[in-house]
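Schema walk-through. Below, the input block comes first and the output block second. Nothing else is stored per chain. Lengths vary across the set, and this one has 339 residues.
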Amino acid sequence: MTDRVLAIDGGNSKTAVLLVDSDGKVLAQVRGPGASPQVVGLQKGLDVFEGLAREAAALAGLSPDEPIARHTAAYLAGADLPREEEDLTQAISERGWSTSTFVGNDTFALLRAGTTNGIGVAVVCGAGINAVGVARDGRTHRFPALGQISGDWGGGGHLGSEALWLAVRAEDGRGKPTELLPALIEHYGVTSIAQAVEKLHFEEIEFDPHALCPLLFDVAARGDEVAQAVVDRLIEEITLLSTVSLQRLDLADEAVDVVLGGGVMTGTGETVLGEVRRRVLEVAPLAQVRVVDLPPVVGAALLGLDTIGASPAAELRLRSAYDERVPPASSGIGIAAGS
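--- output ---
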């Protein structure tokens, strides 16, 4: 059997699967819906992963009765604590996709995608927010990322909810005037935000806080002080996640990578990145702060290639060959290599 790596990036909003050989050649890539076991439940999440893994195998021309890969590298949102990683490793191993399996948090995949050696700090700001740091001696620094109970602040869902909260209070007099109010009224197609609240309460319209996040940044960019205050708070949080990790791992005086990723982060451009970089450099002046230019699933595949002892040439081939043509999907959509 040709050595293959099955890489899974299981986020809250989407799942990406990549099947590569030991030379770094992309055999198949598939995307599907978000299936974090923490959000949708273990069985449903595993079933989504199963369907995408089998689809990738079929696209690569594998027969249904042969193992998909030598190693499965699954990096998942919601794998936040060692107990969760252990449970997920066992559950995925039982699926029989490969002879070995490793499950870790998706921040590790982001870090590997943005570095040549997996050393440094990664902060992901997508549906949620999280960070991880890895030192040269193997020490790691992580946050539980369990929501408000573990001190979290930020992420697309949180920011969107803040936008609605501020608009409601602007209309009823408890808060400051803000252009978020007319922006959300237009978004919901109502005549007042109170009407939107009533419709949301009776589930006559869907509450999707992630959809409100871009509105928040748009309003802030037009000079709205209330919206900008939320953006400033996000900048502070990303800076804290980065600098605390750097300091806890004694990396503040080293030339180290700080990589940022996630839908919220990649969609804001220099609005957030520029100020985060300035603040991080005040603490770690030799750091290289940038947004990752490859998706975390590539990092998951690279970590898998590291595990099976692939050559540096395999990494180079994978980085240069990864194809962004695969569109986001509500169900599995993929392409085979060379298609």
